[in-house]
Amino acid sequence: MRQPSGRRFTALVTGVALAAGLASGCGSGSGAAKKITFWHGYTDAQATAIGRLAGEWNAAHPKQQVQPVFSNNDNTLQKTLASFVSGKAPSIAYQYGSSLSALTGRRQTQDLTSLVNGSPDVNWNDFFPAARQGATASGKIYGVPALVDNLGLVYNKKLFDAAGVGYPKPTWTWDDFRSAAKKLTGDKRYGWAYVSDGTEDTVWRFLALLWQAGGDLLGAGDKEAAFDSPAGQQAMQLLADMAVTDKSVYLDAGDQQYLNLFNSGRVAMMWTGPWDLGQINKGVSYGVQYLPGKVTHASVSGPDIYMIFDRKAKDAAWPFLKWLTSAEVHLRFAEQTGDLPLRASEQKLPAYKSYLAKYPGNKVFIDNLNQNVTKARPNIPEYPRISQVLGTAVQAVLLGKKKPGPALAEAAAEVDRILAGS
Amino acid sequence: MAATVLPARAAKGGRPRRSRRLGEHLAGWGFVSPAVLLIGLFGMLPVLWSFWLSFQETDLTSPGEFAGGAKYAELVRDPLMWEAARRSAVYTVLFVPLTMVLALPIAVMLNQRIRGVTLYRMAVFVPLVTSTVATGIIFNWLLNPQFGPVNAALAKAGLPQQGFFQSPGQALFALVAMTVWGWLGFAVIIYLAALQAVPADLMEAAALDGCGRLRAFRHVELPLLAPASGFLLVWLTINSLQLFDEVYVTTKGGPLRATTVVVYHLYNKAFVDFDGGYAAAVGCVLFLVILAVTLVQLALTRRASSYEVR
After folding, report:
1. Domain membership of residue A75 as a residue range
2. Would you say B140 and A255 are in contact if contact means Cβ atoms under 8 Å apart?
3. CATH code where residue A194 lies
4. Could you say which residues form the signal peptide (chain A) (predicted)?
């Protein structure tokens, strides 16, 4: 899940401001030879990088002109669906992996399974498992991985030194983590930060906890809730112990202040992904470590994907996507943006060394991809509603409004109802 | 007006020349057609479409199926809908009177001949022209429970710390405070305009009759403000029942749904759950509720302003 990195509101404003321009922009391509409209939510360095790559492609392929258009991150699903109604769907659009299940049933959404299977040069299994899972729903491939990330423990070294707490180790347990957070908490300072707005931002961090405790979200076949389990209890209890009992957690209401607070030394640890590293102030000396563990040190990935929505542009858009996500091209993109590699083979390219030198913090996240990101969120149409229910339950526990037990039981009953189709 | 003109013409027995009337009609339609087209296209058509949509089972993108009144039945049974309705009611009952009661004294003060009055008037109006998104960000920061200036001031004054937008019990009230701040300028301008429309000779006559400033306000100005109050009552009520933007940019309906008002519930249903029929049904019900409330308010206001006719 590519986070708007504290620029959620800016993105919203720009998004609204651009909506009018966008509508006219994507309508104007009909007369030209072969225009591939490409909606994305890239800003700053990422926007520059994608613009440069599109330019490179266009120079080599005058008959398959790609036109990158900034749409938005947070509302990209809504905008894409709106474009279906207006009949002006983009050829390609960047989508959150969590939006996939809302898009699979649509006439405009292109099934890429045969294209992927029919082109050995795609080397599909070279993509990290999390990336592949993010693009797949009920056995069909609907997208090409655009971004794969995961959560790591990012900490402020100075605050650890000041509190006399040893830096996090790869073998840290939940107890180590909790007691460190408590020691790091002081006057207007918090050991940890947790996004408590009840959205997917709240949920996916909980999923990591759930998996670390050896639990899972849904039972086999995704037919019923499985999180009202001892593992779920332990995960919720940790949140309650830290947020309610120790008060060592800064609860971020969804305006992504946690990063600013990390920068100003008010928050000592955050569970975040590589996208935030670029936003950490130069003066802040930070380290990155695996998430703490219980049974495992599981991390969670929010892979994002490029999807094709225009049947007529499919044949023209496919070669571009193949090229854009090939190891060499993507590594060049990653070197400019700090994205993680999408493919295992990127780690073997000569340029990978300079990439790592430029983004030393990414090492842990890449190792995570290789060993700690084994499970994925279920790509089922009910997921958005399940996420809402679970998000509310986690929020209630964080705010001390519900005990872990009842919160889990009520949420599980609700999720069972949703899965039963009522 | 047409009703009074036509019989007069008929009485005179003069038949208007057909061609000229047609020409006038065409010119008239020519003048109004851009507005009619725009309002029809972007106002009426969506309203009718959503009415039709409310009888469908649709995810908004693929063609829907006719569902009869199922969506309305679902809506009535949905506890979340009733919760949202109760919140909208609480919000409206607080927001509308508070805005009006605060605006009136400010308007009276700004109606005085004081140095720099333009500056003060502008200051009052600025929140209204500030974008909702900016307002939301500023209030999120001001009311941040851990690091916001408001809690810092409370701590200095020895008062307990508050949760504001992050407290399920306080979020709706914080929203009321923020929106009253945002809308105050609008109400002040309306009252100010009404105050300036009070004829000077009326006030003069009251003064000559030995009426003090306070009594003149109570018995001359205040009654003359009734139409303005009526307008504000209707306008603010409509807007507060349609509250959405402010919620979206501050609390996103949370924490724990504490600020999920009717239109936010509608948004969730339409664009998170993709249940277009249900969302449209909420919209239609809201339309009827607003229509009913407005009609009652208009009737009451008309009675209160009836001195105009006398």
Report:
1. 8-149+302-371
2. yes
3. 3.40.190.10
4. 1-19
Q: What is the pLDDT of residues B113-123, one digit of tens each?
A: 888 888 998 89
Residues A290 and A205 in one domain: yes
pLDDT < 70 positions in chain A: 1-34, 422
Please tell me the distance in Å from A81's CA to the nearest CA on chain B: 7
- Contacts of residue A85 in chain B, CB cutoff 8 Å? 60-61
Enumerate residues 6+ apart whose C-beta is below 8 A from A220. Answer: none
Q: Quick check: B136 and A251 CB within 8 A?
A: no
Q: Is residue A1 part of a domain?
A: no
pLDDT grade for B205, boundaries at 50, 70 and 90:
confident
* Model pLDDT, residue B263: 96
Residues A276 and A350 placed together within one structural domain of the fold:
no
Supply the pLDDT for residue B3.
41
What's the domain count of chain A?
Answer: 2
Q: Chain A residues within 8 A (CB-CB) of chain B?
A: 9, 12-13, 78, 81, 84-85, 102, 105-108, 188, 190, 196-199, 250-251, 253-255, 257, 261, 266, 384-385, 388, 392, 395-396, 399, 401
Closest residue in chain A to residue B135, using alpha carbons only:
A9
Q: Rg of chain B over CA atoms, in angstroms?
A: 25
Higher pLDDT, B223 or B84: B84
Residue contact A399–B274, C-beta within 8 A: no
Q: Which one of A13, A78, A266 has the shortest CB-CB distance to B147? A: A266
Assess whether A413 and A296 both reside in one domain: yes
Distance from CA of B132 to the nearest CA of A (A): 10
CB A15 within 8 A of CB A4: no
Q: Please indicate, yes or no, if residue A202 is contained in any of the structural domains.
A: yes
Give the pLDDT of residue B219: 83
Q: Is the pLDDT of residue B21 over 80?
A: no
Residues from chain B that touch A401, judged by Cβ atoms under 8 A, are 168, 256
CA distance A273 to A2: 9
Chain A nearest CA to B66, separation (Å): 18
In a domain, A51, yes or no: yes
Q: Sheet containing A267-272: which strands, arranged edge to edge?
A: A249-252, A190-195, A267-272, A152-156, A286-289
Mean pLDDT across B273-279:
88
Q: Is residue A76 part of a domain?
A: yes
Domain shared by A22 and A132, yes or no: yes
Average pLDDT, integer, range B21-49: 88
Residue B17, pLDDT score: 59
pLDDT at A63: 86
| Pairwise CB contact (< 8 Å): B166 & A107 | no
Decide if pLDDT at B4 tops 50: no
Token look-up 């700053």 returns A44
Residues A279, A413, single domain; the answer is yes
Contact A105 B62 (CB under 8 A): yes
Of the residues B132, B139, B146, the best mutation for testing chain A's interface (the one with the most A CB atoms within 10 Å of its CB) is B146
Q: Tell me, yes or no, whether A203 and A292 share the same domain.
A: yes
- d(C-alpha B269, C-alpha B81), whole Å: 10
Closest CA of chain B from A131, distance in Å: 24
Of A331, A351, A371, the residue at which a domain comes to its end is: A371
Yes or no: say if A340 and A274 are a contact pair by the CB < 8 Å rule: yes
On average, the pLDDT of chain B sits at 87
Hey, what are B284's tokens?
A: 């239609």
Average pLDDT on B14-34 reads 77
| Nearest residue, CB atoms, B133 vs list A13, A84, A190 | A13
Question: For A193-230, what is each residue's pLDDT tens digit?
Answer: 999 988 888 999 999 999 999 999 999 888 999 999 99
- Please, are residues B260 and B268 in contact by the beta-carbon 8 Å criterion? yes
A385 & A296 share domain: yes
**Within 10 Å of residue B78's Cβ, how many Cβ atoms?**
15
Reading the block at residue B149, the tokens are 């200036």
Residues A124 and A32 in one domain: yes
pLDDT of residue A7: 33
